[in-house]
Design a protein that fits this description.
This protein has 287 residues and is α/β, with parallel strands linked by helices. It has 2 domains: 20-103 and 180-286, Rossmann fold, CATH 3.40.50; 113-178, no CATH class. The chain is 38% helix and 23% strand. It has helices spanning 12-18, 20-25, 72-79, 119-123, 125-129, 134-147, 163-176, 193-210, 221-227, 261-286; strands at 27-39, 45-57, 61-65, 87-92, 95-96, 104-107, 181-185, 213-218, 230-234, 241-246. The strands form 2 sheets. It has a 6-stranded mixed β-sheet, sandwiched between helices. Strands 2-1-4-5 form a 4-stranded antiparallel β-sheet. Strand 7, helix 8 and strand 8 form a beta-alpha-beta unit. The longest helix is centred in the C-terminal third of the chain and has 26 residues, at 261-286. The N and C termini lie far apart (47 Å). Bound molecules: adenosine-5'-diphosphate. Residues 38, 40, 46, 48, 66, 68-74, 237 line the site of adenosine-5'-diphosphate.
Length: 287
């Protein structure tokens, strides 16, 4: 479903000032030798992340893929400020960040809408907390609701929506706060295959229209290839970025592209990188 481009959308104004050319090469996020060691309940330690470094440029869409337990969520929680790093630094626009940060917006796997608020008030929530007046926040929320294809559902409560519509509400709510970086932690994991492919297509259009910098955790190789400019493959525990694969496929990336030979080659290449790590993960699980 084509998404309307906002002529004067909430982020268009801000982003227009920076200029497309400068934005295209500017590094927004730097993850610099980030490590994480957890204390376990048995009194030991677990090294979840070995030193991990990568950069994300403005407007890029980067997927992080890796076997269960390799530290993907830990990495995202550190970037999003929900978890402190044991060592290393996260920088946004060159400034070290710690703790939750308004430049970084997170969308989680589990549904995170407020059940007692309708779609409009869910999407406007962050703006309300930030003190924005009712008329202004509702106008901004409506723009985002239109972008995620939920117009007509503004007054519905989350219980009256499908799982996919609730996730779109959560994505719209996070985008309403204009984060510099959108972190998506398996946002489509609980949805059926067809819905996740269609939502993926819609997410690409939205991120493209807003020139939104985004990082996505996924287990799904096709999803990673469909959405991303680059796919970062993580090793099994202690996790680190093993390889970054550039996805040189034309945009717009529609679901039709999934059957193409070039698409299949990327899926195969990433699977080859991932297979050894997934096997290590399986062996660790049975030990
Ligand atoms: P992934 O998202 O790739 O599945 P996680 O980041 O959730 O992996 O977890 C990485 C490793 O760190 C796992 O072995 C997990 O059990 C461990 N872990 C995650 N959070 C904690 C915690 N709060 N305390 C102890 N161990 C943790």
């Amino acid at each position: 479903m084509p998404m309307p481009m906002p002529a004067t959308g909430p982020q268009a104004t801000v982003r227009a000032v920076t200029g497309a050319a400068a934005d295209a090469v500017r590094v927004v996020l730097e993850v610099d030798r980030v490590e994480k060691v957890f204390a376990t309940s048995e009194g030991g330690t677990l090294r979840a992340l070995a030193p991990t470094s990568f950069e994300v440029r403005a407007g890029e869409f980067v997927a992080v893929i890796g076997p269960s337990g390799c530290g993907k969520s830990t990495l995202f929680n550190i970037i999003g400020g929900l978890e402190p790093a044991t060592a290393g630094e996260v920088r946004v626009d060159g400034h070290a960040v710690s703790g939750s940060h308004r430049d970084i917006g997170m969308v989680f796997q589990e549904e995170s809408t407020f059940p007692w608020r309708n779609v409009l008030d869910n999407v406007a929530f962050g703006l309300e907390v930030a003190g924005m007046g009712r008329a202004e926040r509702h106008e901004k929320a409506r723009t985002l609701i239109r972008m995620v294809g939920l117009d007509g559902f503004e007054r519905r409560l989350p219980a009256e929506l499908s799982g996919g519509m609730r996730q779109r509400t959560a994505i719209a709510r996070t985008l309403a706060s204009e984060p510099r970086i959108l972190l998506l932690d398996e946002p489509f994991a609980s949805l059926d295959e067809q819905t996740r492919m269609l939502l993926g297509e819609q997410l690409i259009e939205i991120c493209g229209a807003l020139r939104q910098t985004a990082l996505l955790i996924t287990h799904n190789i096709s999803e990673a290839v469909q959405l991303s400019d680059r796919v970062a493959v993580m090793s099994f525990r202690p996790g680190t970025i093993k390889r970054i694969v550039d996805i040189d496929l034309p945009r717009p990336r529609t679901t039709d592209m999934i059957g193409s030979a070039a698409f299949g080659r990327y899926v195969q290449q990433i699977w080859e990188e991932l297979k050894a790590e997934a096997l290590r993960g399986m062996q660790a699980a049975v030990r």
